[in-house]
Write a structure and sequence with these properties.
2 domains, 655 residues, three-stranded antiparallel β-sheet, 12% strand, alpha+beta
Length: 655
């Protein structure tokens, strides 16, 4: 009787587990809380089936053990640094990376469910619905001023203080915004969409060898909409990750794709060419209409931008890695330990205080680097082993008719070089579930060693490491760049070349000082704004700055058409960052003056005019004193030579 009851419980629990997994696939594009509850139910109910299903987990234990091992080393490191925690259990349970180990528990369970033939059709259907929900909510969020998740949860009313969407520019008369679906951030949504995009593209390519035109049109439309939303999403790390997966698949399956392409006749080939032409024309149109996309692409090669602060994050991260290579610094201690590395940089150049303050330092923005720092290199190496097995699994995948390839999960390897997707529960939990589905679906026996699966992660890892070794060799004096806003991106770049760096790099200052940069008269007559300096001085609590603000402008003596006058307005703007503290910058003018420019050096000095607090806790009641500048009195028929601009080290220009 007890045995019959046990079998019945096991059977019911197995059904609850598989249906929880299926509804989890529907939930993760819609609700983080609901998806976590369903994942927990899937895991918990499966425990009652271990007597029957436990031995069947054996094929999936190796990759699973590598993931659990990576989390375990973080726990060991935390115990080693036990005395350095002010509240160990509070910090460990709420902030430690090891606390996310439960997310990986769904991996072998999803793999086992996926391996059963009776479940595969249902899983395939729910994957399609999951993707459809993700895409539809993403498209809806493009045209929503409010973040849809909170907007819906508040009864379709915006709550006071809720963050608005990031504007992306007008499209056909409609204002558009960065798509985030029902997620909290565009990075999370970009990560979720990345799981599906490579598979959708593969299915579209497969459709061209079939003769069903409606299917080709449907999948081509879905691919176009997916890529449009993905491009508009602005997640550069996800872009690189998806490109990496597509590159891996293309190289691995080149013969299969070549055979597939050879079967496409002239009629379908012309049709495919027409679709590609339409897609490229559309992308060009959207690019021209979207200033945010233009700015994002132009910043891919820059060290320092408002959105991409990896230089400063890694500059503070690498010393932690060198000091704690074996066991790391412990879970949940990245921010605390990296903040300690800021002081020497700020003491060397106080202007970096604000820059480092607004740099997000909760984690390393690099999955491998994060785990290497908090759990030691052993933790990172185990993750590398898992991704080797993952790419070996992707290499062995077969694209069967009617299937839904989830090969996009490999995007996290490359994307993880620039963002901590494994620390984002909203992405990591679906990642482990989909990885399990991929693992269970493939029945082909894998080779013991796959050199292709080894070479791809190795080469991409070495390329990324080499790039950042080169980048981090750039002195921080040259990596830092004051924010400049002008009417055109070309004018902004030219102005950046004319702002002199800190005095500690005299050779670079001299080079820029003597450089002749010409712009059009139209640009020269337009106004631009230049980031200035804080009203209060380091450290925290901060004291009010007493010395005046001063700038220098150098006109090359041999300039044929320099501006002879300049209007400069000093304005106040709040000193916190809009994306970090969720407030908007309020600005107002303080003083305007017209200056006559003569060949050689010209100076502008301004003394604080408002009665500010003498002592404050930064960033409260601390402001920026920045500058709006417009050049004038030059020949409008000829190119204009821009003067060099010197703010010294801290708006303290001296002849």
């Amino acid at each position: 009787m007890n045995l019959l009851l046990s079998d019945r419980i096991s059977k019911i629990s197995g059904s609850v587990s598989i249906y929880s997994l299926l509804f989890f696939l529907l939930a993760f594009p819609l609700s983080v809380s609901a998806s976590q509850i369903l994942a927990g139910l899937c895991i918990f109910s499966f425990l009652f089936t271990l007597r029957e299903n436990g031995p069947k987990l054996k094929p999936f234990l190796l990759p699973w053990s590598l993931v659990l091992g990576a989390y375990s080393f973080v726990f060991v490191s935390s115990l080693f640094h036990f005395q350095e925690y002010s509240h160990f259990w509070k910090t460990f349970t709420r902030q430690s990376e090891a606390g996310d180990f439960w997310l990986a528990l769904i991996f072998p369970i999803a793999a086992l469910h996926s391996s059963k033939e009776e479940n595969q059709k249902r899983i395939r259907l729910f994957l399609w619905i999951s993707f459809a929900l993700l895409l539809i909510t993403g498209i809806a969020s493009v045209f929503s001023e409010f973040r849809l998740g909170k907007f819906i949860s508040n009864g379709f009313h915006p709550a006071p203080g809720d963050r608005r969407q990031h504007p992306a520019g007008p499209l056909f008369g409609f204002q558009t915004y960065l798509p985030i679906g029902l997620m909290n951030t565009h990075l999370t949504y970009g990560g979720l969409l990345s799981f599906y995009i490579p598979g959708i593209l593969i299915l579209t390519l497969q459709a061209f060898r079939e003769k069903k035109v409606p299917k080709i049109l449907l999948l081509s439309t879905v691919s176009f909409l997916s890529l449009w939303v993905f491009l508009l999403n602005q997640s550069k790390s996800a872009w690189l990750g998806v490109a990496g997966v597509i590159g891996f698949i293309s190289l691995n399956y080149w013969k299969a794709f070549k055979h597939l392409l050879s079967k496409i006749d002239l009629k379908r080939g012309l049709f495919a060419f027409l679709l590609i032409l339409i897609a490229l024309t559309s992308i060009r149109f959207f690019y021209q209409k979207n200033w945010l996309l233009q700015r994002t692409l132009s910043q891919l090669t820059e060290i320092q931008t408002p959105e991409n602060q990896r230089y400063w994050i890694y500059k503070l991260s690498v010393p932690l890695l060198l000091k704690n290579p074996i066991l790391g610094v412990g879970g949940g201690r990245f921010k605390e330990t990296s903040t300690q590395e800021e002081a020497p940089l700020i003491q060397a150049q106080e202007q970096l205080w604000y820059e480092l303050f607004i740099t997000p330092n909760k984690h390393a923005h690099n999955d491998l680097l994060e785990f290497a720092i908090v759990g030691g290199w052993a933790s990172a190496i185990l993750w590398m082993g898992f991704f080797y097995l993952l790419f070996r699994r992707i290499e062995g995948a077969r694209f069967e008719t009617g299937s839904f390839p989830v090969l996009g999960i490999g995007f996290i390897w490359v994307a993880g070089f620039f963002q901590c997707y494994l620390l984002d529960d909203e992405v990591a939990l679906p990642f482990f579930a989909l990885a399990g589905i991929l693992w269970g679906r493939i029945t082909k026996k894998e080779p013991k060693i796959s050199w292709f699966a080894i070479s791809f992660p190795s080469i991409t890892f070495l390329l990324n490491t080499g790039f950042w070794i080169w980048r981090l060799n750039t002195p921080f004096e040259l990596a830092y760049a004051r924010q400049i806003f002008a009417d055109t991106s070309s004018y902004t770049r030219q102005l950046e070349r004319r702002v002199l760096p800190f005095r500690t790099v005299p050779q670079e200052r001299q080079t820029r000082l003597q450089e002749r940069i010409e712009i059009s008269a139209k640009e020269a007559g337009s106004e631009f704004s230049l980031e200035g300096c804080l009203t209060h001085r380091y450290p925290n609590p901060a004291r009010r700055r007493e010395e005046p603000y001063s700038l220098g402008f150098y006109v090359l003596p041999d300039s044929p058409n320099p501006p002879k006058k300049m209007q400069i307005t000093i304005f106040s703007e709040e000193s916190f960052d809009e994306d970090k503290l969720y407030w908007s910058h309020r600005k107002f003018d303080l003083s305007t003056e017209e200056i006559v420019l003569k060949p050689g050096w010209n100076s502008y000095v301004w003394k604080e005019s408002l009665g500010l607090s003498k002592v404050t806790i930064f960033p409260d009641i601390a402001f920026f004193r920045s500058f709006k500048i417009r050049f004038a009195d030059f020949d409008p028929q000829k190119p204009v030579q821009i003067p060099a601009i010197d703010l010294g080290d801290l708006c303290d220009f001296k002849f």
